[in-house]
Amino acid sequence: MRKTITDIQQMKVRGEPIAMLTAYDATIAALFDAAGVPMLLVGDSLGDNVLGFSSTIPVTIEDMVRHTAAVVRGTQSALIVADMPFLTYATLEMAVTAARRLMQEGGAQAVKLEGGQAMVPIVRRLVECGVPVMGHLGYTPQSVHLFGKARVQGRSATAARRMIEDALALEAAGAFALVLELVPAQLAAAITERLRIPTIGIGAGPHCDGQVQVFTDILGLRDDFKPRHTRRFAELAPLIRSAVAAYVAAVGERSFPTAEHSSRMDEAELREALEGLS
Ligand code: KIV
To answer: Distances from the Cα of 240 to the Cαs of 220, 222, 247, 250, 275, in angstroms?
Structure first.
């Protein structure tokens, strides 16, 4: 049985930390599902983690629908949240269209969008239409060109107060959970205490109700990139490089494939096939 947003919200009620991870394809998503991750995010971090872009900005709704559908196909238990890509929710009509595609064509159970009080009418409309919405405050990567670069948000009293008000407004609009990205730990704790819905932190300290990480970061798949807010639970990049180098060498020295990786045909059939050929 797939988890529902109620299951996720009940985890907050029970004080049970919520572990969320990104996933972008069926094979990886199946591994994470089997490992017991209750909620997977098909993040638009697809752009910089899979598609080779340097930000999330170029990611399109077609990209998100395709990868969301793959993650859904690979999983049975996790709740699948899909990111609404850059500028696909600039108006109510656009937001409804994008959410329809992510849920009907992609099979997501919920969508995520970035922004505070300005997003309230969008969140309210989507929720009225039956779309579970996860909010996203703090550093919001789709606004990278406004921020300049990824940096901690809400350090001043004014900015912190605004973030608390944004969080309360998103909850009142019907958001079922809220990502807090690059937020001071004390502010994330203050928001978490004031909300009934779960907060899911990334670089927001240990007091959120849950944590979300980009899977390539925790598995060490990009050894040129290690943000402060992540911990590498594995170092897969050197492992993959040496496994692939071993494969290249084995092919090069003809030690792979061997008879055990090959199939044979009846010799008489082969002779007949070759008869008369030069
Ligand atoms: O796209 C993404 O991976 C995200 C997380 C950083 C929360 O939005």
So the answer is: 10, 11, 10, 15, 45
Torsion angle of the four alpha carbons 122, 126, 131, 132, in this order, in degrees rounded to the nearest 10:
40
Model pTM score:
0.97
Interatomic CA distance for residues 67 and 24, integer angstroms: 5
Domain 5-236 belongs to what architecture?
Answer: Alpha-Beta Barrel (3.20)
Q: Hey, where are the domains in the chain?
A: 5-236, 239-274
With b for 16 or more beta-carbon neighbours within 10 A and e for fewer, the 230-239 pattern comes to beeeeebbee
- Rounded CA separation 275/54 (Å): 57
Q: What's the number of CA atoms in the CB half-sphere (13 Å) around residue 87?
A: 5
Q: Does the annotation count 181 as an active-site position?
A: yes
CA 152 – ligand 1 centroid, Å: 15
Is-contact 156 172, C-beta < 8 A?
A: no
Cα distance between residue 8 and residue 130, in whole Å: 17
Which listed residue (165, 181, 267, 269) is catalytic?
181
Chunked mean pLDDT (size 10), the chain, 278 residues: 98 98 98 98 98 97 99 98 98 98 98 98 98 98 96 98 98 98 98 98 98 98 92 97 98 98 98 96
Query: Which amino acid residue places its CA nearest to atom 4 of ligand 1?
Result: 43
Residue with tokens 């927001």: 204
Q: Could you say which DSSP state residue 130 is in?
A: T
User: Shortest CA distance to 217 belongs to which of 231, 198, 196, 238?
Assistant: 231
